[in-house]
């Protein structure tokens, strides 16, 4: 393993730890780290989805064990999102389109990370109509597969905005949503036989370790606001680089 791979392993460990603490798989963090180190776009998406599967699986189990989950909210999102995540994953965008698209997603993720570092109300409103959940799930699933993120950075704000669940339950729903979408998206991506990096096993171990620690902490407490703000800075820099090099 060369120096670049070793540095990326550390970044992946840190991203997995932080993201799993709020029920996320960490794909936007992995994409940001790979963007900063100049990893090729055709490697970024399958790698981020593969790591996402591992971390979100750990997070899902952790949140389920403490009862932070809502099946009634989860299943419509998942049912509609999975086929569209597969479709998005099966599509291959040219580099000059994929890079700015991911750049925008990373900058959006930075804003969400900074915003969520502040206290958010835990009041819960009324459950939305089934059709709204299905349409939202389909849109989020397609974007997830297309960009290589699991969709948690889009789903969590939606649930928080309309107060459809408590903060901790949202983290549990997001973890499971990311898991099923990452699997579907990855299956779509591998239809084009992408090249996977040789260092992926090392990154996988780092992701699982970070995901285990982060999910254990996050299922009992909320993440550290200062760390989330620092992460936002990294995401902005990586997103700007993706857009500038498109």
Automatic annotation (TrEMBL):
The keyword tRNA processing does not apply. The keyword Cell membrane applies. Keywords: Cell membrane, Membrane, Transmembrane, Transmembrane helix. The chain crosses the membrane at residues 6-37, 49-68, 74-93, 130-162, 169-190, 202-219. It is a multi-pass membrane protein. Signal peptide: none annotated. It is found in: Cell membrane; Membrane. InterPro entries: TM_pro_TauE-like, TSUP/Inactive_protease-like. One of its GO terms (cellular component) is plasma membrane. Belongs to the 4-toluene sulfonate uptake permease (TSUP) (TC 2.A.102) family. This is Probable membrane transporter protein. It comes from Hydrocarboniclastica marina.
């Amino acid at each position: 393993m060369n120096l670049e791979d070793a540095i990326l392993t550390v970044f992946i460990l840190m991203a997995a730890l932080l993201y799993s603490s709020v029920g996320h798989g960490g794909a936007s963090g992995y994409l940001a780290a790979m963007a900063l180190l100049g990893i090729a776009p055709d490697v970024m998406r399958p790698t981020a989805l593969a790591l996402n599967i591992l971390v979100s699986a750990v997070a899902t189990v952790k949140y389920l064990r403490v009862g932070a989950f809502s099946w009634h909210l989860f299943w419509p999102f998942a049912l509609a999102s999975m086929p569209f995540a597969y479709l998005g994953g099966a599509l291959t965008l040219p580099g000059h389109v994929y890079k700015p698209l991911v750049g925008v997603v990373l900058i959006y993720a930075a804003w969400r990370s900074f915003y969520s570092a502040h206290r958010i109300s835990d009041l819960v409103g009324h459950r939305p109509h089934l059709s709204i959940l299905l349409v939202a799930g389909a849109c989020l699933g397609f974007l997830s597969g297309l960009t290589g993120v699991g969709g948690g950075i889009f789903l969590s704000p939606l649930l928080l905005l309309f107060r459809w669940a408590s903060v901790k339950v949202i983290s549990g729903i997001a973890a499971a949503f990311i898991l099923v979408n990452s699997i579907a998206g990855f299956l779509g991506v591998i239809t084009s036989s992408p090249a996977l990096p040789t260092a992926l096993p090392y990154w996988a171990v780092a992701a699982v370790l970070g995901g285990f620690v982060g999910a254990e902490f996050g299922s009992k407490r909320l993440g550290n606001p200062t760390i989330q703000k620092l992460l936002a800075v990294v995401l902005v820099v990586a997103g700007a680089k993706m857009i500038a090099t498109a």
